Amino acid sequence: MDLLCKTYSNSSDDDDGKQHKPPKTAPPPSKRPKPYFPSAHKPVSQAPDPQIGSPIPQNGRYVSKREKALMASASITQPDFPPTLPPSHEKGSISSADVPQEILLSLRKRANTCAEKNKLPCRLSIDLHGHVKPANAVQWSTSHAHLLASAGMDNSVYIWNVWSEQQKKARIISNHNAAVKDVRWSPQGQLILSCGYDCSSRLVDIEKGIETQSFTEKQAVTAIKFHPHNSNLFLSGGSKGLLKLWDIRAGKVVHEYVRRLGPILDVEFMNDGKQFISSSDVSQSNLSENSLIVWDVSREVPLSNQVYVEAYTCPSVRCHPFEPSFVAQSNGNYIAIFSTKHPFRLDKYKRYESHGVFGFPIKCCFNLDGEILASGSSDGQVYFYSVRSSKLIKKIKAYNQPCVDVAFHPVIPNVIACCSWAGDVSVID
């Protein structure tokens, strides 16, 4: 019996075949050695360890070999931080490798004859389904003309490989935390700039699928536009009426245009980028003359605020590609025409009317040679007008919901993209 007592009193979980006699007297508290803990586990608190579900040992408490092994294995197999989803992910390819040969031939050549240039789209040919909430904007890439970008109220930007025979969803960019209001391709075509109600504009490399820069403001950003001759500069306007010119290289604002304006609806550069037009919401004020303002880019001053004095807001502003004029989509259910030369007079004898706006953010655009003006409409149709005569040439039924934005293809004359308030994106040719 004495031998058994001696044997069990000297054994433990750490027993490695040798017997260790305990010291006769414990050392004084001030000279007591510090307890040993494995490097993979730090004894910082007495709260339960979420990795192994047991309390972290207190200082001075005996730690058996079995507990050491459990703590070490748990710290190795469990990460210290939760995994995060990437802001963008790939669905298909952005390459034109699987685009039909006849489309590639059309993309590689530009229309030369007047008949080709003035050829109008005929029918809805491609439906692109992805957005689950209203789509706000569409734009073709000028350098990779088989790619189309769309922005939606579902916090996402889609990159479509339109004529791909396999997967048309090339990229789904989900780096915004709120609805995306506008999207623009960089002139080089490798970057996408988008803005939205999360008070930011974000630049994404679509080839790598990663965000390269973010530009934060103290307002929801509702409109963006790259400078026509310097791709390192872009203009932004937001819900508080603030207008800013950003330099991508420095990541900061280089010019700010301050005036008591309503929410910015659209911006557009003109006169070789030396000036720009801003359109703002004047529905909550009596200052209807501030609906359209022409600004000097470098001097940060308005050149005229008496451009449009009617009590309507203008959700879209577009410059003619060659002539000294610009148009503004009006909530009065027509498109007004203005001169780009001071004093930027309104053409009182001609305007484009037949379509409906009725408070929706309906946009318009010119075709390649500026002979045709296309507009969305609240009745879901796309309207085509002759620029010179302002007469309606044709209209095509696209949706049951309002057609919000339209964009002519940068190479093929008879192709136009459009999107709807229901979230549909389509191509008409």
Automatic annotation (TrEMBL):
Q: Does the keyword Mitochondrion apply?
A: no
Which keywords fit this entry according to its UniProt record?
A: Repeat, WD repeat
- Note the superkingdom of the native organism: Eukaryota
Instruction: Extract the PROSITE patterns matched here.
Output: WD_REPEATS_1 (PS00678), WD_REPEATS_2 (PS50082), WD_REPEATS_REGION (PS50294)
Database matches in InterPro entries: WD40/YVTN_repeat-like_dom_sf, WD40_repeat_CS, WD40_repeat_dom_sf, WD40_rpt, WD_repeat_protein
- According to the record, the residues making up region (Disordered) are 1-59, 76-96
Read off the SUPFAM superfamilies from this record: WD40 repeat-like
Q: Where are the WD repeats?
A: 128-170, 173-214, 214-256
PANTHER family cross-referenced by the UniProt entry? TRANSDUCIN/WD40 REPEAT-LIKE SUPERFAMILY PROTEIN, WD REPEAT-CONTAINING PROTEIN 25
This one is known as: Translation initiation factor beta propellor-like domain-containing protein
